[in-house]
Amino acid sequence: MAGQVEVGSTATDLITLTCETGGTPPPPPPPPPASARLVINEVDYDQVGADTGGFVEIANVGTAAAVLDGIALVLVNGGDSAEYARRALTGSLAVGAKIVVAVDPQNGAPDGLALVDTATDTLLDALSYEGAIHAATIGTGVFDLVEGTMLPVDVADSNTVEGVLARIPDGSDTGNAAADWTFTTTPTPGAANVKTP
User: Fold this and answer.
1) Which of 15, 75, 77, 155 has the fewest beta carbons under 10 Å from its own?
2) 122-180, pLDDT tens digit by residue?
3) Is the pLDDT of residue 90 over 60?
């Protein structure tokens, strides 16, 4: 607030402050610049019967379109914490949009997924499921795939019940896997995630 502050003392050595308001208040701070933010949003790594038809859904939950060139979806084996497959992404992803990558992630305990900026070896997002992977070797880097509290081992995809792991609410990312992820019996590749028993 614009104005004038006067400081004075009394005979008893008490300090008094006098504030006179006036003028024009300062303008509000500018909004933060728009930026893209990619998250792994839904995963089907275990199917009833043969393990085919798996997928990983990636969502842009930021405020600007995301350039996907140079971004890779990396699959990590929890047995040796090493990368065993990757899918290079291309093109762009609008704000709020989703891309579905057809892939069959392993269903051991544990295994993991990572979104990596390959130009800078930067981890953008990760999920470690059915256990913790704290030191995954991806390219030239070593990354912790656990965000916050580990996803409980019993929150898992199933080979007896159709379903997926999904962020609920759709796109939520608090940095805590145990809070953000759950199992749902309604796969929604390319659409908003839905929680069903």
Assistant:
1) 15
2) 999 999 999 999 999 999 999 999 999 999 999 999 999 999 999 999 999 999 999 99
3) yes
Return the higher-pLDDT residue of 156 and 22: 156
What's the predicted TM-score (pTM) here? Answer: 0.84
Say which residue the tokens 């392993």 belong to. 106
Domains of the chain: 38-184 (2.60.40)
Q: What helix, strand, coil percent values describe the chain, rounded to 5?
A: 0, 40, 60
The two tokens of residue 116 are: 């990596």
What's at 25, amino acid-wise? P
Largest CA distance in the chain: 89
Residues 6+ apart with CB under 8 A from 31: none
Q: How far apart, in whole angstroms, are the C-alpha atoms of residue 188 and residue 186? A: 6
DSSP three-state, residue 179: helix
Phi, psi of 83 (to 5 degrees): -65, 135
Q: Which residue has the tokens 């990572």?
A: 114
pLDDT score for 1: 47
The encoded tokens of residue 35 equal 């930026």
Element (H, E) at 178: helix 177-180
